[in-house]
Amino acid sequence: MFTLAAMVILYVFGFVFLYAVIRVSVRHAMEDLEVRRAEALRMERMAAERDRDFMQQNAFLANG
């Protein structure tokens, strides 16, 4: 009987531990996604600014 009770307790704690691990990994993945999204937006803005500066300096390329 003790063996069965110990097995049930370990089984339940295993699921709780697995839930915690999945929750932490999802949280870290969401944080990484947020950082990458911000970095991609920053890079896009930098590229647009660089293109705008290039076209201002080389207006003949833009039919201006």
Notes on the protein architecture:
This protein is mainly alpha-helical. It has one domain. The protein is built from one helix and no strands. It is rod-shaped. The model has no long low-confidence stretch (mean pLDDT 93).
Please trace the helix and strand order, writing H or E for each element. H
Q: What is the gyration radius calculated from CA atoms?
A: 27 Å
Total number of beta strands: 0
User: Strand percentage, roughly?
Assistant: under 5%
Query: What oligomeric assembly is this protein in?
Result: single chain
Task: Find the structural class using helix and strand composition.
Answer: mainly alpha
Kindly, what is the distance between the CA atoms of the first and last residues, rounded to a whole number of angstroms?
Answer: 88 Å
State the domain count.
Answer: 1
Helix content: over 70%
Q: Main sheet?
A: none
Q: Segments where pLDDT lies below 50 for 5+ residues?
A: none
Shape from CA axes? rod-shaped
Mean pLDDT: 93
Q: Given the structure, what is the number of helices?
A: 1
